[in-house]
Amino acid sequence: MTSVRVLVGTRKGAFVLSADGKREQWKVDGPFFGGWQIYHLKGSPLNPNRIYASQSSDWFGQLIQRSDDGGQTWNPVGNKFEYDGIPGTHQWYDGTPHPWEFKRVWHLEPSLIDPDVVYAGVEDAALFQSNNGGNDWHELSGLRGHGTGPRWQPGAGGMCLHTIILDKTNSDRIYIAISAAGAFRTDDGGKTWKPINKGLRSEHIPDPNAEVGHCVHRITMHPSRPSVLYMQKHWDVMRSNDSGDSWHEVSGNLPTDFGFVIDVHAHEPETIYVVPIKSDSEHYPLDGKLSVYRSSTGGNDWQALTNGLPQSHCYVNVLRDAMAVDSLDSCGVYFGTTGGQVYVSPDAGEHWSAIVSNLPPVVSVEVQTLV
Amino acid sequence: MIRVVLPPHLRTLAQVGSEVRFDVSAPVTQQSILDALEDRYPMLKGTIRDYATGKRRPFLRFFGCNNDLSFDSADAPLPDAIATGIEPFMIVGAVAGG
User: Fold this and answer.
1) Does the domain spanning B2-93 belong to CATH 3.10.20.30?
2) B93 CB near a chain A CB, below 8 Å?
3) CA distances for A355 relative to A218, A300, A333, B82, B97, angstroms
4) pLDDT tens for residues A262-290?
């Protein structure tokens, strides 16, 4: 019997939503870690019962929790994130140098080949790795130290490394993205990195075509087409056909190309989803109508998907880690909002319904397809 | 026997009640209390003192004997009433946020 488990991180705790393959009747468990900010939870693709959670608080700092029973029970593991060497400075909002300071873990990415290996993207931006299930962490400091770090600057949410993409066809290749530095790629398992921002254009930096400084909000990749990447930038939806070496815009007929999330259909590598947001100063849907847009052509030609979504007076946001897809035959698409709703479409976006409507603001959504 | 009062979230994390008690060798200081506390409850490491600086986290305060001890030296001997367990050493979260 197939089923799905939706892992929801919110500003005030974690929730686990479960359903069978029909995705109609839902069981809601939580809150776990009530009162704490849960930036992200993600399960190991090799051992779905192993789930990692990033738990943080302005009062008590960062914790990492691990479950080995599918989210029923949790244990704190290692939370010592120390930068390698003297971390130096990045740009502050006003352009002055600012010391690198660890604040929190934004994203956890379990390895595709070893259930004990997990990566953590942190603020201030850096990539960490654990080889023992989260008990100990070390920085992959080639990223932060490759030379452009002093020019990186924080986005509104902080200078966060929020996206980690592993390539199942090449275990040495990792993509990451940082707000507001841009996208980077390693081809040697994290020792050395290169910026992959050619073709991005951002008006908020002095040189709109600069090597770094772009506010990349999210990147996604279909596992069967690892050289094709899709990006939701601050403004602009972008596509790369060459593993990030170059990008071109595919915003096409979107009503606004500002947004945070982007994801790709589980079975159709050219079908992608975004949630357009009005602007960088008004973080809510255009005209108060919550709409997912889908392109079945890898971008440029977009279709609004609104059936079941609020079409008036809706002023929520959908944050960068808050969309996911399951891998059932009829691909399910999920997203969470800052208004506390988690929506599901069990038919690839044609029809939507709210699984839950009154959670704390949703920060992240991940889905596990269980067989 | 030292008495330490934790804020509610840390009680949940350490799976303890409102107060924990343990022995600390003299001289009893903030440093020695927190070291002993973390030895007994390793999950609290990093939650009271920042890993990088070793200093009290900014949204926490230390109180005892009706005084704010937050800005006293971590190595300074604490009042006898705390060292003997008559009064608790209180770790208090700032009243901030929602």
Assistant:
1) yes
2) yes
3) 24, 30, 12, 51, 28
4) 999 999 999 999 999 999 999 999 999 99
